[in-house]
């Protein structure tokens, strides 16, 4: 059939099985919005308050489901507002397709109104991007964008479509959702080397990351760990891949990783890194990182192998192929001494809990654990609250923890929580801080408009807690520009102004009551959960240092 | 060209890319983002119209070499990447150089042109335009030889290179 470019955009989305998109209209996407208007029975468009949050929402939607998230924005500022969201998705390898309008081709390059070179701007933060120069190419580009976004290591793809192209006509036939590129086969000799190293190991440690989500390799990781009697630790991105109740799973490793997880990673004689990239937040000083251990690195992205930490054995390939090969190759093992050592560390971790100065953030997380269901997605922003959530929240199912890892984007949370909520249609929780929330609170109106069952927990310490923690420890308690006390809004009034419910809690019991009510209310509630400004996130390995430098107790404060 | 650091070598990479708008930017942007320095770069059409061939010379240690290859292979418009092994490669560079013709050193100029099989392509009483082709070492040597005459302006094309033997790079399988 003959269709206009704008119609091809919408029909292509329908063809790819897209049911929800996030966006904000403007001059150069009027035609696309007009085409969307006619097809609103097939595509639910969520109108956000700012394009950045639309990008985060598409990202949160993708994280919660594994489907490709879609965001639509206009040219110029609409497009540049997407940049932080696209970079966030890029750093965490999340499949997102971003569609932007641009000025008509005769106007391109003339500094026309709301013109910006968004393909140039997003070149280093997209997996790939397109400027559509020819209407004949549009249907193919729409399909290829989805293919690239979801294949191998997923990532964001941007399509910039000039306004005149949107009004040109060409043939379009639906072809059904694109299949990803063929899975990448691992090399058998590499698997054999890995098998030999695993069979020799006495203290094996499996270190997983977000790649486990992308490959949905959850069961294979557990099978491998069971067979070789290994323990498992995860990066921030690997949280919720393995149920916390699994006794082999020790939690997060790294700068603010759990004590037992981080120490046993350092004690291991073999690290099997799967779908993860040895971020500096995990390794600290790379020259000292797991110095004694043999490192096997398995990833679909060959460029990750030996990028940050040199791998003794690199296994490049799709984890859905390489992990079963590895599992069938290795000998069944038992390592009672290793497990006893890990058990000791776990026991020690229980006794390490540092004294708190007010409401214990861990207790707040425990309340959330008690009340949320196994299907609840918890999104976070970035800072101390994020680390507490990573350390103390527990999950039974994958894709339930939505957080910005690589880019560390304050302001990610509201959009991401909305995206996850739209995707799952379940009560959703956002754990945020007063600093991060200040960057995205205008999104509350979107949640109210769409009647999203969203509970927003502001861990309110009236300071930029994580930065303050560094200022306390490394900058002589000079709290430069991190005190928010005098600008703190009245969150109850703020919530009410947006049509949401607001409540202040000052004790764990008050919080439990408020959270329980909010979670079951079916609407948007903002809980101003007061905590002390000098709570620390512990343990902590200062940046660029080693496990030996781990701080487990508050010092001067 | 920058001085080589310890463990660094200089190498030539051939890259087949889609012959499309903006692809060169994608390649060079990756180099900038990952902190690799390009010594010279040439790009042009190839035997197949849908591809362009980029020849790039750079220096780096084993880590830079491996990272650069892997990051290049990830780019969607990059079809084929290979490091060209010096001993199995034919390599050429073109130099255009304008030198002073007002000295009494005509003999030196003529012997340089002779020895290096260079061509005088522009002549005036004040200046000479000379063309030299060869591998990069030969070009370096020519420049040093002719320097005493007085170099007014010069321009090098950067290396272009093909591997020896019967096959085309496009037909060889990728090995990771």
Name the descriptors.
heterodimer, A: 557 residues, alpha/beta, Rossmann fold, 6-stranded parallel sheet, 38% helix, B: 176 residues, alpha+beta, Alpha-Beta Plaits, 2 domains, 5-stranded antiparallel sheet, 4-stranded antiparallel sheet
Task: Summarize the topology.
The complex is a heterodimer of chains A (557) and B (176).
Chain A: E1 2-4, H1 5-15, E2 20-23, H2 30-38, E3 44-47, H3 51-65, E4 69-73, H4 77-80, H5 83-91, E5 96-102, H6 118-121, E6 128-131, H7 138-150, E7 156-162, H8 163-166, E8 169-171, H9 188-200, E9 204-208, H10 211-215, H11 218-228, E10 231-234, E11 249-252, H12 259-267, E12 270-274, H13 280-283, E13 294-299, E14 313-316, H14 319-329, H15 336-351, H16 361-371, E15 378-380, H17 384-392, E16 401-402, H18 413-424, E17 428-433, H19 434-438, H20 444-449, E18 454-460, H21 465-474, H22 491-498, E19 501-505, H23 508-521, E20 525-530
Parallel strand pairs in A: 2-3, 2-4, 4-5, 5-7, 6-7, 9-10, 9-12, 10-11, 12-13, 13-14, 15-16, 15-17, 17-18, 18-20, 19-20
Antiparallel strand pairs in A: 1-8
Chain B: E1 9-18, H1 23-34, E2 38-45, E3 51-60, H2 62-74, E4 78-84, E5 89-100, H3 106-115, E6 119-123, E7 127-134, H4 136-146, E8 151-156, E9 160-163
Antiparallel strand pairs in B: 1-3, 1-4, 2-3, 5-7, 5-8, 5-9, 6-7
């Amino acid at each position: 059939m003959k269709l206009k470019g704008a119609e091809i955009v919408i029909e292509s989305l329908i063809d790819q099985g897209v049911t929800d998109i996030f966006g904000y209209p403007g001059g150069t996407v009027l035609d696309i919005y007009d085409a969307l208007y006619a097809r609103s029975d097939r595509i639910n468009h969520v109108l956000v308050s700012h394009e950045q949050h639309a990008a985060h929402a598409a990202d949160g939607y993708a994280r919660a489901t594994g489907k490709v998230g879609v965001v639509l924005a206009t040219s110029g500022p609409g497009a540049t507002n997407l940049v932080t969201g696209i970079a966030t998705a890029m750093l965490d390898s999340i499949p997102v397709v971003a569609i932007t309008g641009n000025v008509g081709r005769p106007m391109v390059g003339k500094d026309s109104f709301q013109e910006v070179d968004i393909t140039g701007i997003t070149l280093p933060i997209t997996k790939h991007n397109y400027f559509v120069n020819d209407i004949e190419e549009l249907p193919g580009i729409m399909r290829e964008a989805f293919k690239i976004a979801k294949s191998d290591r997923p990532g964001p793809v941007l399509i910039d479509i000039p306004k005149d192209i949107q009004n040109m006509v060409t043939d379009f036939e639906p072809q059904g959702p694109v299949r990803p590129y063929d899975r990448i086969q691992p090399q058998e000799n590499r698997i054999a080397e890995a098998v030999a190293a695993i069979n020799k190991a006495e203290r094996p440690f499996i270190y997983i990351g977000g790649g486990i989500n992308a490959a949905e390799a959850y069961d294979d990781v557990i099978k491998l760990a069971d067979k070789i009697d290994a323990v498992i630790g995860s990066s921030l991105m690997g949280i919720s891949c393995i149920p916390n109740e699994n006794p082999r799973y020790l939690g997060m490793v790294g700068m603010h990783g759990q004590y037992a997880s981080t120490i046993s990673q350092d004690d291991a004689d073999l690290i099997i890194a799967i779908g993860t990239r040895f971020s500096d937040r995990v390794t600290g000083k790379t020259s000292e990182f797991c110095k004694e251990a043999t490192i096997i690195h398995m990833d679909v992205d060959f460029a990750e192998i030996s990028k940050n930490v040199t791998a003794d054995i690199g296994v490049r390939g799709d984890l859905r192929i390489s992990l079963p090969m590895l599992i069938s190759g290795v000998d069944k093992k038992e390592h009672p001494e290793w497990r006893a050592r890990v058990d000791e560390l776990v026991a020690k971790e229980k006794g390490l809990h540092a004294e708190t100065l007010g409401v214990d953030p861990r207790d707040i997380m425990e309340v959330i654990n008690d009340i949320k269901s196994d299907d609840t997605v918890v999104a976070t922003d970035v800072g101390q609250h994020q680390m507490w959530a990573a350390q103390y929240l527990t999950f039974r199912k994958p894709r339930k923890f939505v957080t910005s890892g690589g880019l560390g984007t304050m302001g990610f949370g509201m959009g991401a929580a909305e995206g996850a909520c739209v995707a799952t249609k379940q009560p959703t929780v956002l754990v945020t801080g007063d600093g991060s929330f200040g960057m995205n609170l205008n999104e509350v109106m979107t949640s109210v408009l769409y009647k999203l069952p969203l509970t927003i927990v502001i861990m309110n310490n009236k300071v930029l807690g994580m930065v303050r923690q560094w200022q306390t420890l490394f900058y002589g308690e000079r709290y430069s520009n991190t005190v928010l006390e005098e600008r703190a809004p009245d969150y109850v009034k703020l919530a009410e102004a947006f049509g949401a419910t607001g409540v202040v809690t000052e004790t764990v019991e008050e919080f439990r009551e408020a959270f329980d009510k909010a979670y079951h209310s079916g609407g948007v509630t903002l809980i101003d959960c007061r905590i002390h400004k000098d709570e620390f996130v512990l343990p902590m390995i200062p940046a660029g240092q080693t496990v030996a430098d781990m701080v487990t107790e508050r010092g001067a404060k | 060209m920058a001085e080589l650091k310890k463990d660094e070598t200089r190498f030539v990479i051939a890259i087949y890319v889609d012959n499309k708008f903006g692809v060169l930017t994608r390649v060079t942007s990756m180099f900038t983002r990952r902190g690799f320095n390009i010594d010279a770069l040439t790009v042009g059409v190839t035997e197949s119209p849908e591809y362009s061939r980029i020849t790039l010379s750079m220096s780096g240690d084993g880590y830079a070499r491996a990272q650069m290859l892997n990051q290049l292979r990830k780019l969607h418009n990059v079809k084929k990447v290979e490091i060209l092994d010096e001993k199995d490669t034919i390599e050429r560079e073109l130099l255009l150089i304008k030198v002073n013709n007002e000295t009494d050193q005509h003999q030196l100029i003529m012997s340089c042109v002779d020895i290096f099989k260079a061509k005088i392509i522009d002549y005036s009483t004040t200046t000479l335009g000379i063309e030299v082709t060869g591998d990069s070492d030969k070009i370096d040597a020519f420049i040093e030889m002719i320097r005493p005459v007085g170099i007014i302006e010069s321009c090098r094309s950067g290396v272009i290179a093909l591997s020896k033997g019967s096959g085309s790079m496009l037909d060889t399988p990728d090995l990771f």
